[in-house]
Amino acid sequence: MTILAFILAGTLAAATPMLLAALGELIVERSGVLNLGIEGMMALGAAIGFVVTYQTQNPYLGFAAAALGGIALSMVFATLALALTANQVAAGLAIGVLGQGMSSLLGKPLESQTLNAPDKLGIPGLADLPVIGPLFDQDIVVYLTLALAVAIWAVLNHSKLGLIIRAVGENPSAARAVGFPVLRIRLAAIAFGGALAGMAGAYASTIYTPLWADGMIAGRGWIAVALVVFGTWQTGRIVFGALLFGALSLGGLIGQAAGVGLPSQFLASIPYIVTILMLAVISSNRRRMRLNTIASLGQPFSN
Amino acid sequence: MTPLLQLSGVSKRYGGVHANSGIDLTVDAGSIHAILGENGAGKSTLMKLIYGVEVPDEGQILWKGQPAHLSSPSDARRLGIGMVFQHFSLFETLTVVQNMALIVPGSKADLSARIRELGEAFGLSVDPRAMVHSLSVGERQRVEILRCLLLNPSLLILDEPTSVLPPQSVALLFDTLRALKDKGIAILFISHKLEEIRDLCDTATILRQGKVTAQLDPREGSARDLATLMIGRPMPPAVHPTPHGLGDQRLELTGLDYANDDPFGVSLKDISLYVRGGEILGIAGISGNGQQELAALISGEITLPASRRDVVRLMGQPVGDLGAAKRRTRRFAFVPEDRLGRGAVPDMSLADNALLTSHSRGLVQKGFIRRQAERAFTADVIARFDVRTPGPQAEAGALSGGNLQKFIMGREMMLEPEVLLVAQPTWGVDIGAASDIRQRLVAMRNEGAAILVISEEIDELFEICDRLQVLHKGRLSPSLDVATTTVDEVGTWMIGAAT
């Protein structure tokens, strides 16, 4: 396999965990809530997904359980952030740490166990193309995640539901004044974000690297949060950022395999650095930031 | 005939405060009914009860003779009650038609057509595809009214609708409201502007301290009578400045240009003005036309590059590149428009708030705060400016708007500045305190200070200023002499129609 084929084949899969989690966080932040517990929700989802898939040998059950786990943890966050109007940054960080701890606890008995990765689904015709063929030979979750990105873009920009979510995030008092149940909409958004973060974790532990190792999420939840903010809350830019990160993380692996004379820790940190630099450049346009920033982000709201 | 809306004995408490107690109100179809009262009299609470934002603790609301249970604004809208908020409830990053689509059923094309149709019928034309943040305040108000009209209301509530409009737009709004009244729509018109109410309304209900103090035909009494009912005592007489010898130019802007990179902000173009000792220059205009930017450029919150430092001069010296603290050391003082946040720190005591700008008055020694001097200075401000508060240790945020404004004005005036900039001196301040603040500004001018007042209240500017300039879309009109100009002339500049 050539280096190009390797990158084409692997980028989408490498990007998927961040992208799934970031799409969920996008909806949460568009409704005006800042959930910094994504890393913990992914870690919990990864452990639950791995344990359930290992025990039942059914990856669908694993994903469903991971989504439920993500929702459950996000509801703890929602209780703090919405019902008790706690500081969202502090609540998110605390929930994140809780999720990581629960993940270690659940996964402990299965440390270093492996799973069989599901088969890939080639798109007939496209997967056999020269050069770009590997791009169309992915697992089902990759296709579904890309479809979800398109769906979220359409909902946010072209549907009444999207208008309502944006309205609640921009001006919750006005949204309440015209009669929208602000807290219920935010609760639903948080649950959706929790479910996607849980599934993102399950994808990382059961499909992308089907081997349990404690701490395997390794900051990808934080990258997801960064993607949303630096992507200026635009679906397209978030997808771009996730793909960039995916491609660069593969580039790091290739570099290591080729024996580039740099420490592996440095190579492993390149995707994080480059992604943040790229997105920081995108978001450095003050005008664009000002027009896209969610006005009520992170501010507690009570009726 | 059954009245459209009838309230009997309606009360609402927040904590220990009776915002409304035992309110009786009857509104008939096809009438314009004024709700008149000072800030804090309970007008907004009453409207929230009628629009379902709040639920009354006691009392009954009847709609067309039937008991109505209004527990949310959507309940109110279903019955046919629409509300135009003072601080608009529009979403700035959405287009006009998207704002409508949030609460009005129908396709976008259909809504756009109806927006145009209603706009023509009632003089409310606006482009349905425009983004709300790009609209002027008057246009936003039209959008709010249109959004209500799309739902075919029988009752329309307008909360202080004219506080944001230039005089000419007020006349247009009144034409629109009269046309709606002729269609049989009842209108509740909340205001504290007496002449407007006498001009427009059939009935007025006057609130004071949460209670109804009178219900009358506003055209029968004079504005002074209404004011007496509203504030519970006769209006204090206005003091006009007496002619006085003028000093030299203390503050001078020459050809100030400022390009704002904030898409929601305003850029200033070729601003020139001067203020001499012993005069008050007023900057008229509707908020959002560059007032905040102008104030920040004069106060030093926004600094210019050193190459353009000549553009702003204090006492003849170029200061364009100096920050706020350095400008303050040159006998300049500033009262910003937002009391909580920029004028004062809400969580800090009055004494600590006094220290923020008055540290040079012997309140600090070798870097340490002299608590006794700080307390004495603060007590002095409180006594001399009649601030109603328990004492220097009270939290700034606990004071009423009028009292805190008096405190901040006092703090700045105690510095005995040569140049004083005051932005919106009486926003949200009750009539008594507002008149007190205006008298103090005039007194300070008579002692020879140069004062620049930025205000939206035309009447206020005409009362205290010697000269006026009007800010519109970041440009400043020529100087108008208050003795010879008229409200109409100023209004023409406010909407950019003057040549």
Give a written overview of the molecule.
- The complex is a heterodimer of chains A (303) and B (499).
- By secondary structure, chain A is an all-alpha fold.
- Chain A has 12 helices and 2 strands, in the order H-H-H-H-E-E-H-H-H-H-H-H-H-H.
- Chain A has a two-stranded antiparallel sheet with strand order 1-2.
- Chain B has 16 helices and 23 strands.
- In chain B, a hairpin with a 2-residue loop joins strand 17 (364-365) and strand 18 (368-369).
- Chain B is an alpha/beta fold and 499 residues long.
- Chain B folds into 2 domains: 5-231, Rossmann fold; 249-494, Rossmann fold.
- In chain B, strands 13, 16, 19, 20, 21, 22 and 23 form a 7-stranded mixed sheet that branches.
- At the A-B interface, helix 6, helix 7 and helix 12 of A face helix 2 of B.
Name a few traits of the molecule.
heterodimer, A: about 300 residues, mainly alpha, 12 helices, B: about 500 residues, alpha/beta, Rossmann fold, 2 domains, 7-stranded mixed β-sheet, about 25% strand
Structural class of chain B: alpha/beta
Known CATH architecture of chain A:
Orthogonal Bundle
* SSE sequence of chain A, one letter per element: HHHHEEHHHHHHHH
Number of strands of chain A: 2
* Helix-residue proportion of chain B: 25-40%
Give the helix/strand class of chain A.
Answer: mainly alpha
Helix amount of chain A, in percent?
Answer: over 70%
Reported by name, the CATH topology of chain A is ABC transporter involved in vitamin B12 uptake, BtuC
Q: Give the strand content of chain B.
A: 15-25%
Tell me the span between the first and last alpha carbons of chain A.
59 Å
CATH class of the largest domain in chain B: Alpha Beta
Mean pLDDT across the residues of chain A is 89
